[in-house]
């Protein structure tokens, strides 16, 4: 496949992602948390969550140290990371298939990458680092093995569950009795993790403090969703790739190419982990093993299609596979466009932020049942949740100036006698009411 085609694919992806980033004025929940954490490393931040996966916030803060704090800079950084993932996927796929160029389109414009490719979340950063680690393993020499361990360790710091990749690679080298490669890979991981371990020990007297706190927080605040929901999400977002994956496993077990054990084991272990050990079954979690899942599936597609004698028919069938993979992205684009249209037409959320920003001083306290990291980051207030139905207690404990209610948040039966309604905003079906506390 000509390099020109790959460049065109990447340019189209970048342009689409930039358009979404420029027009999505209100960010998703965790984006505000990571941005708030990054701000906290440089200046005062009014809402931070230290238990979050650490690498992304530090990367953003380093970039901001050079450019100054800017949300669009962080979003553009994520677009570059997503673009790098697409290119690394292509380089890896090229090791296993002959039609890597056209098949690349099915990955680059897959629904999950289109929806999350510009957002400030740790998922794509983590799988990029792990994908680089795997590509280096294929090189089979000393320095790549050590570097592979470093990237695997960084992938873990970007998102802890991706430690499953390191485990798969460790057992792969152990099974192959590649003791030197195992030592180099393990040394690379330790080198990547050492600064994190030392920092946690110095700050919290516990080298794995945020690792433990992350899982304690998830266990406390998330609820169990059925296993079938994750499998349903996998089918919806990966579509025909689910079938092609098992066909690919069959061919890999027969032909035994380089590192086929990792290609098969990592996505399967990830699916088991998210099905049985994670409460929420967010479709976003599929990103953590998506490149490996797609590579195996695309191997299955190519090996099946090669049985077709006519070259033209082979190209047509491959094209149909790519179209089927891309088709669900239309729904994701519609979701993003609807959100953009709501924000432009009503500006309810941004209006509520502007009201709080203009009626409070930096550091004032606000209580809300709706996206408190957003108000903390945008309005620079100490925003916290309505974690108790005793409003009088919360108001006095936090010395809150305002209370913000949304019908999108959890609804409480509260005593409104101490509140005075001062503003109301609407954004599509989201109704936001702002109350001033009467002392």
Strand order of the biggest β-sheet = 2-1-3-5-4
Order of helices and strands: HHHHHHHHHHHHHHHHHHEHEHEEE
- Overall structural domain count: 2
Q: Main sheet?
A: 5 strands, mixed
Low-confidence stretches: none
Number of helices: 20
Total count of strands:
5
Which percent bin holds the helix content?
55-70%
Measure the end-to-end span: 70 Å
Strand content: 5-15%
Shape: globular
Rg value: 24 Å
User: Strand pairing plus helix content: what structural class?
Assistant: alpha/beta
**Mean of residue pLDDT?**
93
Could you explain the architecture of this structure?
The chain has 439 residues and is of the alpha/beta class. The chain folds into 2 domains: 3-336, no CATH class; 347-437, D-Maltodextrin-Binding Protein, domain 2 (3-Layer(aba) Sandwich). Helices cover 67% and strands 7% of the residues. The protein contains 20 helices and 5 strands. The chain has a 5-stranded mixed sheet with strand order 2-1-3-5-4, with helices on both faces. Helix 2 (29-40) crosses helix 19 (372-379) and helix 14 crosses helix 15 (290-305). The radius of gyration is 24 Å and the shape is globular.
What is the strand and helix layout of this fold?
Blueprint: H1 3-23, H2 29-40, H3 54-67, H4 71-94, H5 100-108, H6 111-116, H7 123-137, H8 142-158, H9 163-175, H10 179-204, H11 209-221, H12 227-238, H13 241-255, H14 260-276, H15 290-305, H16 311-326, H17 329-346, H18 348-359, E1 365-368, H19 372-379, E2 382-385, H20 391-398, E3 400-406, E4 419-427, E5 430-437
Parallel strand pairs: 1-2, 1-3
Antiparallel strand pairs: 3-5, 4-5
